[in-house]
Amino acid sequence: MNIKKISIINDGYIHCKSNFYSSQDILNNASFNFEVGINRLIGEIDSGIWAISYLMSMYNHRPEDFILFEQPKVTVNNKLISLDELSKYACYMDKLDPLFSSNHSVKKLIMQGLEHSKLNCSYDDIKNLFHIDSNRFERSLNGVGNEIFKAMAAIGFSYKKEIFCFPWLSNRRFESYHENLTTLLQILEKLGKTVIIPVGISPPKT
């Protein structure tokens, strides 16, 4: 699917989880619109911005985390589709996503992704595309350090994912990833992917 625009209206409770945080969140008939490129959402951990990212990417994998009062209204390129269908094109940029649950090396996970998707490129092409260090490429995600988001995105790309949904990151944590994360966002944007990244509010300057 060539995703250009996404619109979602949802009403319900969502228990958002990541490697860093956990939060009970609510979407009270909330409406969101996303376009190809970087969709940076700014707000508190329980302001709904993490909930929409989690809903789009983890609905099929962790149904116990969702209490929806009615089926979300989802359109892609102005056409109605189900949330189940949308979720097939999304990956959650956290080890909670089943794509990242294995202890295999990044290289092995990308090879598995290419076998699944039949994408016309090699694992070396993807390693170079996402600027992943050669040594870390041979490690599991637990050993790639600050390149973890680049490694996850490379794996998601190998599975032909179109939507990259991040967990909520505090502003301080977002800044701690600095160039690794900034570079990755630019790569995904150039590839025509849709990125949802909820980030905490910047502290006031003193």
Polypeptide structure, described:
The structure is a single chain. The protein has 206 residues and is α/β, with parallel strands linked by helices. The chain contains 7 helices and 9 strands; from the N terminus they run βββαβββαβααααβαβ. Strands 1, 2, 4, 5 and 6 form a 5-stranded antiparallel beta sheet that branches. Strands 3-9-8-7 form a 4-stranded parallel beta sheet, with helices on both faces. α3 runs parallel beside α6 and α4 (123-129) packs across α6 (148-158). The longest helix has 20 residues, at 171-190. The chain is globular, with a radius of gyration of 16 Å.
Give average pLDDT, whole number: 94
What is the helix/strand order?
A: EEEHEEEHEHHHHEHE
Principal-axes shape call? globular
Q: What integer value in Å does the Rg equal?
A: 16 Å
Distance between the termini: 47 Å
Q: How helix-rich are the residues, as a percent range? A: 25-40%
How many beta strands in the DSSP annotation?
9
Percent in strands: 25-35%
DSSP helical segment count: 7
Largest sheet: 5 strands, antiparallel
Low-confidence stretches: none
Looking at how many chains there are and whether they match, the oligomeric state comes to single chain
Question: What is the structural class?
Answer: alpha/beta
